[in-house]
């Protein structure tokens, strides 16, 4: 069975590999313990922010990563493989902008 149901370009494949490698090394260890304890993985969230995962699908002019939605979903899928709870945090903390300040994205 293929690893994905759509064709990924070179940048998307590189992103997939980078996020998977990081997730396996730094997210998977302790995922079950965090799930049982209900601990909020603050340091992992900060790491994802530093990696730019939260802002991947937003334009660079707004402080985003300038990537398409498929690239963002590749990252989400790779995180979900090892820690579904962290993925929910990622999806719930999406950057947004208002019509009064479309030049800026902020985490809500």
Automatic annotation (TrEMBL):
Q: Which domain of life does this protein belong to? A: Bacteria
Q: Which residues form the Acyl-CoA dehydrogenase/oxidase N-terminal domain?
A: 11-90
Tell me the protein's name.
Acyl-CoA dehydrogenase/oxidase N-terminal domain-containing protein
Quote one Gene Ontology molecular function term: flavin adenine dinucleotide binding
């Amino acid at each position: 069975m293929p690893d994905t149901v759509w064709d990924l370009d070179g940048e998307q494949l590189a992103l997939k590999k980078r996020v998977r490698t990081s997730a396996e090394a730094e997210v998977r260890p302790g995922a079950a313990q965090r799930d049982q304890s209900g601990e909020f993985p603050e340091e992992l969230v900060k790491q994802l922010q530093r990696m730019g995962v939260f802002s991947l699908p937003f334009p660079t002019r707004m402080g985003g990563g300038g990537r398409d939605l498929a690239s963002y979903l590749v990252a989400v899928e790779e995180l979900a493989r090892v820690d579904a709870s962290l993925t929910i945090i990622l999806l719930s903390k999406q950057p947004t902008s208002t019509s009064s300040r479309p030049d800026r994205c902020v985490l809500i």
